[in-house]
């Protein structure tokens, strides 16, 4: 089996989300762009890591997804050889109402200006 | 003269404020607490660095103020041997409406839990 499928992906509970950790996670153009893309994929939208076409190396990209997951912003799961990502919009909106409404348009701007 | 008074304090213009830089600056409990204290000092409220009683060393504290200033969140000026800080609420509200309304209460919680 590939090692990836054996990796346990840890996700904080909604109540464990910390505001400063979430802000720090969103405080990077690549991560903000990822969040905007996932937001635009809709509430149940899942996107594979490979579909993002980010202007960074593959390992840097993986690091960014990890930061987002550990902050509680995204849910990740493995499906075969793919890693699928979903925005935890309900959880983030419940804990920090309005934050994603501000952040997502800013993330779209990042993408537009790439 | 003290070297401090000779230091030129650089402040970005309102239009130069970047969303991700502002989020990264707010994404730390000490800096978020500083912002909340300054917000509660009112629109023209200025507080000297020494009045914050933060749970970090003096040099770490200076670093945090610098990050906030360079992100455009606070204005700093020297008055004698004191360095006075003011929240750039108008500028941040103009560029990122609603962000401080979310962040300031979170910063107050940080202070409460210290």
UniProtKB/TrEMBL annotation, chains A, B:
Keyword Transcription regulation found: yes
Keyword hit for DNA-binding: yes
What are the HTH arsR-type domain coordinates in residue numbering? 11-107
Report the superkingdom from the record.
Bacteria
Q: Which Gene3D superfamilies does the record cross-reference, listed alphabetically?
A: Winged helix-like DNA-binding domain superfamily/Winged helix DNA-binding domain
Note the SUPFAM superfamilies from the entry.
Winged helix' DNA-binding domain (SSF46785)
What keywords are annotated for this sequence in UniProt? Answer: DNA-binding, Transcription, Transcription regulation
Q: Which PANTHER family match?
A: TRANSCRIPTIONAL REGULATOR, ARSR FAMILY, TRANSCRIPTIONAL REGULATORY PROTEIN
Name under which the protein is recorded = ArsR/SmtB family transcription factor
């Amino acid at each position: 089996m590939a090692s990836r499928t054996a990796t346990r992906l840890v996700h904080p509970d909604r109540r464990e989300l910390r505001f400063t950790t979430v802000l720090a996670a969103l405080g990077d153009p690549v991560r903000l762009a990822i969040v905007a893309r996932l937001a635009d994929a809709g509430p149940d939208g899942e996107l594979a890591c490979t579909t993002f076409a980010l202007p960074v190396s593959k390992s840097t990209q993986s690091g960014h997804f990890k930061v987002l997951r550990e902050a509680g912003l995204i849910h990740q799961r493995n499906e075969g050889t793919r890693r699928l990502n979903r925005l935890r919009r309900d959880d983030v909106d419940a804990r920090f109402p309005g934050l994603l409404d501000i952040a997502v348009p800013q993330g779209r701007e990042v993408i537009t200006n790439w």
